[in-house]
Structures are given as structure tokens and as C-alpha cells.
Amino acid sequence: MISGCGGSHKKDAKTKAPSPTSATPSPVPTFNRSQVNAALLKADDIRSGIKQIPVVLDQVRENKLPLCSLTGMKLPGTPQLITRQFTNKVLGKDQFQYTQLVALYADAGAASAAFSTVTQALGKCPAKHHAPPRQLANNRTVLAHDDTWKSSNTAIGQWPHVQAIEQQTVSPDATKYNAYHFIYDYAWRGNLMFASVYVQRTAPKDSTAPIIQQASGILQKQLGKFG
User: Fold this and answer.
1) Are the C-beta atoms of 86 and 182 separated by less than 8 Å?
2) How far is it, in rounded angstroms, from Cα 11 to Cα 206?
């Protein structure tokens, strides 16, 4: 029976607000070589009309991490390295190259320390630099060029990440499309460190925005595959 108004009744007890709880951090992943190989993008996932080739980018071919102005550094420690390179058959404005280097360390601590060493090295790259011509293997020559370089730290999900943008400009007497745009990406998570170099040519005054967007899209797709 429901009682009417006017009777004595106890004061309702106050409801205690639940205490806030912090989000549980995701466990640090440990990748193995089979997992990495299964997660690597296929050629068509990267860009249509390209194919995988033996690695010819000198730094990566020598198992070094690519840095500014076609230099490289040996990674600290003894990681397992997986390297790949892709290209198309087009010359000139739409000429394209994309190179990946994956370094698998024994544990997350070693990979973290390596990434810290890499970021320190990137910080030493000059904003502007003139590089003289030099001879490479297989009778190849790097033309004299002027470099501009800038980098930024922008985490992608749970991946600490550095992106560097470099433009190498050779003499217009050498080629019509004499601006070479290098998009370098470096990322780390768990025991894995990832690096890539996206290269495309344009005329000097062409916008680099589409190139940066394309490189960033490939990177996000690739890191997403690693989980």
C-alpha cells in the first residue's frame, strides 16, 4: 500500500560518486620477424604501378639508417633488419621511390634507446646545406645539390614519431624536374623501430603538399598493420 503525503520519513542517503579510474595502458608489444613480414604492405597497398626491387638506396643497402643529405648511421645494438624498396618505371615528374627499414630489437628498452639515439642524430641535420658531387657504387654519381631540411615530432597513435622533409635541388641544367623531395619517417613501438624514405621529383616551384600527404598516408597504413 502506498502511503500518502505528510508522514514522517527518513532523509535519503547521498549517493557516493564513483572514484575516477585511469585507463589501463595497452601492453607493450613484442614483435617477431614472422609478424613483421606478415604486416608489411604489398606493392599495391603502397601505390599503384610500382614494384619491389632489390634495395639500391646506398645507406639502407649497407644496413644503415638513412639520414639527411644521403648520409646514414649504423643503428646501435644488434637488431634484426628487414629492408625493402619499391619504384616505378616513370622518369621525370612522376618518378617515385619508397624504401623501408624495420629494426627488431630484443626488447622495448633497446628499441627505445635506439630511437632516442636516432632523434639526437636527426637534430644535428643542418637546415641548409650544400653537397658537392660524389661518386657512388656501380658508376653512379650524385650531382651537386642544395639541401633544405626540417623535422617535427608528431606521435601517431601509440607510436612516437619524427617526420623530416628534405628538398634537394640540383642545377636546372641537369634536368627539368630538378627538385627531389625526400620524406623521412621514423617511428618506434615495443621492440620495433621503423624508418622509411619516400622520394618524388617536381619542378622547383611545385607544391610539396601532395607528396607529404601521400607519404603520411602510407606511413599510417603501415603502422596500423603492425597494430
Assistant:
1) no
2) 74
